[in-house]
Design brief:
Length: about 300
Amino acid sequence: MARICWYYFKEGQTQDAIAQRLKITRKRVNRILGEARESGFVQITITDPVGACVELEALLVARFGLTRAIVVPAPMADTDVRAFIGAAAGRYVSQALPPGGALGINWGGTINAAAQNLKRRSGDGSRVVLLCGGLAQSTYINPFDNAAMIARALDATCYYVTAPMFAETAALRDALVASEPVRSVLAMARDLDVALLSAIDLSDQSKALEYGVISPETRRALLEAGAVGDICGHYLTAEGATVTHPLTARIVNPTLADLLLIKERVLAAGGVQKVAIIRAALRAGLCHVLITDEDAAGALLG
């Protein structure tokens, strides 16, 4: 893989030339290059200062009292913005996480993209803590897989919440949260150096709905209860207050109070469909650093 990537990205050779040189098929060269990008083995950085959307970043910091905002250009129509925001999040976390630091994550496509863009480390004693339970069935965007990817990139010890994301009953949820090792892992939240959080919206474009994490009936009920989305399993109103709903009593996650003790909370989320939950998270105090796109930034400031 390293040799093919060197020839292609550093020397600028075509895939056909590489295939002939290594006596393999062009199709295999293309597949290996794709795997290199997806795994984070190859990382592409664009250093154009205009692309940083500096004015929007400054306005977001001033309006919402953030320590920092990072705004990426809005992608073309029908392009998944999560890949761009996740790439920026991966680069930011690579800089922000101190040597031997503890990083908490929740789940989603943005977290998956961030995992592919982390600067690799080795042997500094870092820790990765998953801040949600698992899914019994999912696509490649699985909480456990995302945590493992990040841990591999950072050469870190990984701590998993060995419980489902949603317990069958509220009583079972309470029992799981009180049991070991779930209790100890959730308790790590309050001592994290950095948390990388994504936002789950409740629009008709919601990935939680698409992936079958929640049903259309549950989505409607949450909307009727006043929710606009969730951050790390905490469903919030537009004003940033928590929502009471039968589902929220079954979610295995850290308490809101523990999340608010994390030293640096990084929210990576974009797309206009997520503006309501991003704003709710800002009002709830769940964000020190916001990483988003031009369209969402403009809507937040509008």
